[in-house]
Amino acid sequence: MKRSRLRRNRKLESDCGGDDLSATTPSDSEQGDATYETDSTELEDAPSSPKRLRLDENLVLEPEIFYDAGELYDDPLDEGGVDLSEIPEDFDKAPGTIERRERIESRWKRYCASQVRKRPNDPKWRKVEEALRQASNNDMYRFLRWCLQLERGEDGRHIKGINKASTLETDWKNLRCYYQKLTKIVINDEDGSEIRRGMKYLVQEFGLDTQPGRKTPVYIEDIGPFNETILSTQEKKFHLGFQRIQVCLFNSLGIFTVHRKSALLSLQFKDLQISLQKDPRGGPPVPMIELTPEGTKKFLGLTKLTTFALPEIVYGPSLVICPHTLLFGILFHARAFRNQGLTSKAQLRKLFISKGCEQLLVPLDPKKSGWYVFCKTELVKGVPTIQRTTQMSKSVIATLLVTFGEIRGWKGAFHAHQFRYGSGKVINESGWVSKEQHMLIMKHASPRTFLNHYHPLQLDTDMIRVICGLDPDVELMRAVTRQSRWRDTRRPRYLTDQQRAQVEDHPELEDARRNLSKIRAQYEETQQSGLLPRLQQREKEVRNTRKRLHRSLRHQIRERFDEEQAFLDIEAQLSGTVVKEDSEDKSSLEDTMHPLQLHLVQSLLSYPVSNSLEGEWHRRDTGTAAVVQYCDVLEGGPLRGRPKQKAPRSAPLAGRTAQPQGLHQTKNDFDSCVVPVSIHGKPLRATKEYLETAKQPEACFQCFANEGLPDDVRFRMFHDAGCVTRHFDTTHLDEKPLECNWCEVALLHKMAFQRHAIDAHGQNVIMKHADSRTFLNHYLPRHVDTDMQNVMNGHESKKSLMRAITRRSRWIDTRRPRHLTAEQRTSIREHPYELMRLRHDKLAREKLNTFGRLERALRQKVRREFDRRQAKIDIERQLSGAAIDDEEVKDVLRTNSGMPAPSDEPGEEPTVVEVRTAKTTSSVSPEMSQEELLLEKAAKYIRKAKKPRRCFQRYGDTQLPVHRRP
Question: How confident is the model over 927-943, as a mean pLDDT?
């Protein structure tokens, strides 16, 4: 009978549409909570009552009536929207891709126009698209050669030109895409190889550079002093101090998250999650910042978002690179937290985590979720105004990085991609990050992407010491490859008057002035209005030519500065003269630093002066308060013009210098390269110390911990870690039961055992996948648990803390509701689907299914919003000084008196939350015992409830213990 009823239910549910059928299947997120209706004390576990069996028999005996799905649900009409042909082919493409494609299209149009002038009798070139369809390989080759000869753009402005072979390759790629867009045909390999042969000839003909650009890395040692320069320099001013803080935060997040420039600039408040995490090693809660930027690279409009966790590092050397100090300062300045009483870092430290929870979320104001962290600041009617909902442009942050890099004395133009060069190399060599996680952090589809496009070309391997068997000098080799190696504060930023005068004699500028004189004389003689636009164009060309020559000369001087200045310094030292140098910290401007800026620099450059935790907290809280205070400082706007030039020195000041002692007694370093007598290899037998200390042990921990095995099997050393992997996969993954002999921990399934071997024992195991990317795409958690700050600083990573914030137990909260309240269940009965009962009385089962589906959806919504709502309630109580009585809360939850949450609607006021104790029934005698009171409450509940969730059969069984009867 039970089986026939199941078939009947399926038949009824199949008539209700696919929506209800899919709704009856629990989702992955609800599978863990799907047992909330199968407790041992519930009526569903008991045998079915005879009444229900008779109801099922009646249903089976009745003739089956099939209803059309249209009577219950009206299918949507296919109307509105756009057809596939109306969607542009460049839809949701990257702006850079569209810009390069439009540029190649415009150049092809100009090339066709030039061919029409050259070959007026050839009709093929009169139609641009038809010319490309009929173009031969020689036509495409001639077009690429024509692009190399271009000097002016469409608007007549001088273009930079093509100097790299990679740029020519990019133009050929865009031309192929344009050809495929028109003809819907891909250029075959034979034609492509023929054109590539011509491109090789063009590279040699025009002398194009075939080497990639220098990938100079930027490390944490560079960003710390760089941020100090940004905070203290007076050579660059902003409208508001908030802009200066933004640049420092951009550098800090760039070095610790390895994100691209576009991803950081698109960061909004909704992409942030602030929380207090319970320290697994004990101690006070740890403030945590988690970033999930959505502005990452996309393919087909989709991307897998990655979450970066940045815990606060206590006793850090400097606060100028601390993202917590800078980001919390911006958040407090914007009053971004949902709890308006939370206005300082000191108040945040007073909060605590409730009993039964692993964290305390600090929710942000949902009304400000669309605000940008790196927002735009502009003048509105002469007043500097922060445009919170407008993103800062890429060109603004790129210009600021170049300007501050020049002020710092760095060579070349500093750009944001250098963060990825340095940080990507650090995490690749740290040993704390696996290959798959490195690809996840860098957002790469293959490990070769990092090798081909990000790994610095200047190797920092100390080859002499490594080959001689000595310990390499890592600090020295890292120092000679990073950005600050080429730092020289004497590097000129502006041209002198003599250098600017040299530009006036340049032949190109003389030609531009000559053309201007002709047009001007012609206009003065004729006074024709048609010559006025040409005259203005010539004047603009003279100005642009002068600026371009100034930039070119300035670039040449800065590039040659190192060799020229080194020659002068060596000559001065050899001749015994001293060149008087200006103080490095002395500003070239006469104005003084703002008092609040001086206070900001002193607060962020302070060092720990006490070993007490309270003293370190006070230092960090003071730095955050200084950031909040400086955000509103008016700096006066960007400086105009060039700084005052100093009079050139005719000759260096004379004076003898002290020669280095023992200059000729220096020993040759190569003479000290002695090969050590013994080379440390792997041990002959596996030991406990070896398995605990080795990063990738070449012995099996599972066999070693099994004392029942022979000694030659327990202490066996394999050839390499890969052999251990294959041994573990073929031998131990098929054991039953799955249990780690070393840790004495039982595992549920194979994947849990594999994960345990990776995390606890550093053992690489074989995940039985057809492709190596399967683990990266489907199994590797998207929450990055790499301690980026400690890794970049060269410190030991806090694996216990980072693992605690990524595991499932982080979200434990025993107060999370498991059942809906009576008010919430009543609201479901008012849903429009409830009216279906009036239309089809025969489908009573459909009503029950719909009610159950809506109940599950509402329950899931309540549980999903619980963390954010409850966090606000807890913070408000803690800030107001009210204590939370756990027994009182349990009593309220036991009596199903749910606590109302504050409203999230913009126009509604927050609801005042009150915790009230459960009211007892006046008819109960105070002399009754606890057991009698429980039985009395259970009896009243069973008599009054329509569908009681207590078993009346167990209640009437007096042989059972009292605590199991109700």
Answer: 71
